[in-house]
Amino acid sequence: MGTSDVNVNSSSSLVKDFLHKCGGVAVIDGGFATELERHGADLNDPLWSAKCLLTDPHLVRAVHLDYLEAGADIILSSSYQATIQGFKAKGYSIEESESLLKRSVEIACEARDVYYNRCCETSADQSTDGKVLKQRPILVAASVGSYGAYLADGSEYSGEYGDAVDLNFLKDFHRRRVQLLANSGADLIAFETVPNKLEAQAFVELLKEEDIKTPAWLSFNSKDGVNVVSGDSLSECAAIGESCEKVLAVGINCTPPRFILDLILSIKQVTTKPILIYPNSGESYDGIRKEWSNTGVTDEDFVPYVNKWCEAGASLVGGCCRTTPNTIRAIHKSLSGKRTV
Ligand code: MET
Ligand SMILES: [Zn+2]
């Protein structure tokens, strides 16, 4: 063990310890960008949710707070599609871009502070309008979306980046952002909607190369319930997470609920780390038209399956695009009997 491993070891049990304090299962927040949109934000922009960092940081904080009050134990920052390259394309300087990235985590931390104050101000016998106002451990995760998310052309749902994009390209693309977010005050880094094996490899190599002290999770998306969206093997992708001591949990997000059970069973074959799942509502996203089709069958009401997913091995559960604080409230409620605290 080198000296650089000391801090990692002290944070290597962060998620397991947290789960223990949460009574075995933790609730992740729900769709963030789509919730901003439900509040009227226009995110038809290459920056998507990160546009709100510029135009409406109060709404960003309010949505975080809504998720905490709905019972989320982990909230993800608004940095999913925030990149230095993306801000630069809008005319922001490197310094401005870097401070916007950090700001996304600060806003999430501010929401947590406001939440804790509200918990203190509310006595047990006060009516809380169905809000969960309970002093409890809460983690802030810095969201890192894929290169495809930055491209804003829907390729985070195909994982097809073309031959010119290799491992070094992806590492260099993400390097500075990951360094910054790791030092932003976040408790962990959430690599999410990872569409292929190459990018998973890039993330774990970056964690090592840059000696990142903040632990991470690695979350893939699937559109067939078998492989990740690029067609790469989910087992191989999850095994990449398993091989890295800085990755504390592995799982699936932004994937239709009907695929989740099989995906959990497949991940379980290759990891002993906690498994996280936060499905979308089951609607499909048209990356070119930049809209969700709410036609056809949706799985919006997936909450009844949450306990089954936990029985199958998931221990961190939430929602992704088009799920709302109501979804998270229902997940919180359905898990309350299951938790041991
Ligand atoms: C396309 S998946 C988006 C994930 C991000 N955490 C969000 O909810 O906005
Ligand atoms: Zn999503």
Summarize the structure.
This protein has 341 residues and is α/β, with parallel strands linked by helices. Helices cover 42% and strands 13% of the residues.
Structural features:
single chain, globular, eight-stranded parallel β-sheet, disordered N terminus, binds zinc ion, 10 strands, 341 residues, two-stranded antiparallel ribbon, TIM Barrel, binds methionine, 14 helices, alpha/beta
Task: Set down the secondary structure blueprint.
Elements: H1 5-11, H2 14-21, E1 26-27, H3 33-38, H4 51-55, H5 57-69, E2 74-76, H6 84-89, H7 94-121, E3 139-144, H8 147-151, H9 167-182, E4 188-194, H10 197-209, E5 216-220, H11 234-242, E6 247-253, H12 260-268, E7 275-278, E8 284-286, E9 291-293, H13 306-312, E10 314-317, H14 325-336
Parallel strand pairs: 1-10, 2-3, 3-4, 4-5, 5-6, 6-7, 7-10
Antiparallel strand pairs: 8-9
The structure holds methionine and zinc ion (ZN).
Zinc ion binds at residues 31, 254, 280, 320-321.
Domain Hcy-binding: 14-335
Cofactor: Zn(2+)
GO molecular function, one term: methyltransferase activity
Q: What do you see in this structure?
A:
The chain is α/β, with parallel strands linked by helices. It has one domain (about 5-335): Homocysteine-binding-like domain (TIM Barrel). It is built from 14 helices and ten strands. The longest helix has 28 residues, at about 95-120. GO terms for molecular function: methyltransferase activity; zinc ion binding. It comes from Solanum tuberosum. Keywords: Metal-binding, Methyltransferase, Transferase, Zinc.
